[in-house]
Specification:
This protein folds into two domains: about 45-60 and about 115-310, 3-Layer(aba) Sandwich (Rossmann fold), CATH 3.40.50; about 65-110, no CATH class. With about 300 residues, it is α/β, with parallel strands linked by helices. It is about 35% helix and about 15% strand. The chain starts with 16 loop residues before the first helix and ends with a strand. It has helices at about 15-30, 45-55, 80-90, 110-115, 115-125, 130-135, 135-150, 165-170, 205-215, 250-260, 280-290; strands spanning about 70, 100, 105, 155-160, 180-185, 220-225, 240-245, 265-270, 300, 305-310. Helix 7 crosses helix 8 and helix 10 runs parallel beside helix 11 (about 280-290). It binds S-adenosylmethionine. S-adenosylmethionine binds near residues 186, 194, 199, 226 and 247. S-adenosylmethionine binds near residues 187 and 248.
């Protein structure tokens, strides 16, 4: 219960009862006002309509699993030998193998390749060999998004870069009909004073190019600026899906500080680099952050970390 104390100056003798009501209403509004509301340019869909537009599960092929071999990987002393060894292992192993993105496994269902709407969204957005190699990471995002699109709240990616991750998710879930606001934050250029490394496409013109990429998607709001400062007055109140991919601990923790409380119960957070030892300072900082809030980050074999908001 809230109790409102009115001082005599607020309710002076000259005001009428109806004026008092207006003043009281204004005070109550001000008390509960958060950061300025940003209007959504898309019409919110009813739950039943969202369910109708979800991608359908493709009929499975029995007794056969797809394979994925894309020798893009990092952190080895002799890449050629790694490819030779991986090929030898795959030749000895059951089908359903995956070799890419520092991740060799076999005897898997390779679900992402069974899911035709996903394959289409992923293939149509490929821009680099790295995009191609991280298919399993993209499918984790797509499955998280499938869940989160049915919740209240917007979608957010911190570290939008070329927008491939955002667009793959959107195209999986309706393309131009995607029923949520999707906020993408990035500096779109490299600042050598920061801890994250430069990306190949960083530089002048990147922001404009990525904005043009989303010209047909009014639900995408791309915001150029430094995280966390950029969130001020430029951030949704409620978040269902949060993907953080900044390659550096301070900015990721700052993003958590600002955004995690805005996540709705059941919302999903994916930390792109959490389980990569190259980015160990991120895991260490994030573990401490989540430990204080009694959460455990679920490390995925893709190198991502997953948290479900309570
Ligand atoms: C690995 S890229 C993101 C890739 C993208 N998520 C994808 O799936 O393709 C990391 C991005 O984080 C951005 N970044 C890092 N620190 C930042 C900060 N403090 N503020 C804004 N952007 C930042 C970089 O500019 C870079 O483009």
């Amino acid at each position: 219960m809230f109790v409102i104390f009115c001082t005599p100056t607020t309710f002076c003798f000259k005001t009428t009862p109806s004026k008092n009501r207006m003043i009281l209403t204004r005070i109550i509004r001000q008390m509960f006002r958060k950061s300025p509301r940003v209007r959504t340019p898309i019409k919110a869909l009813a739950q039943a309509d969202i369910i109708k537009m979800l991608p359908k599960l493709s009929p499975p092929v029995h007794n056969a699993c797809a394979n994925f071999f894309m020798p893009v990987f990092w952190e080895t002393s002799n890449p050629e030998s790694v490819v030779t060894s991986a090929t030898e292992i795959i030749n000895l192993a059951a089908s359903g193998h995956h070799f890419a993105d520092n991740f060799l496994t076999w005897g898997r269902n390779m679900s992402m390749l069974d899911d035709h709407p996903f394959r289409q969204a992923w293939e149509s957005n490929l821009e680099s060999v790295s995009d191609e190699a991280i298919i399993w990471r993209r499918y984790v995002l797509a499955c998280a998004a499938y869940h989160c699109v049915q919740l209240q709240g917007d979608f957010v990616e911190c570290g939008a870069y070329t927008g491939v991750g955002i667009k793959t998710v959107i195209d999986y879930l309706g393309g131009v009909e995607f029923p949520k606001m999707f906020w993408g934050y990035d500096m779109f250029e490299h600042d050598p004073s920061m801890l994250n490394h430069a990306m190949p496409e960083h530089g002048e013109g990147l922001y404009e190019r990525i904005k043009n990429k989303f010209a047909a998607y009014p639900q995408v709001r791309l915001i150029k600026g430094f995280i966390p400062n950029v969130f001020e007055n430029n951030c949704p109140d409620r978040i269902a899906y949060l993907h953080i991919d900044l390659n550096q601990a301070p900015a990721e923790v700052a993003a958590l500080d600002y955004l995690f409380d805005r996540m709705v119960p059941g919302g999903i957070l994916i930390l792109d680099d959490y389980e990569w030892s190259t980015y160990r300072p991120q895991k260490i900082a994030e573990d401490q952050w989540f430990e204080a809030r009694h959460y455990r980050v679920m490390p995925l074999p893709t190198g991502q970390g997953l948290v479900i908001k309570r």
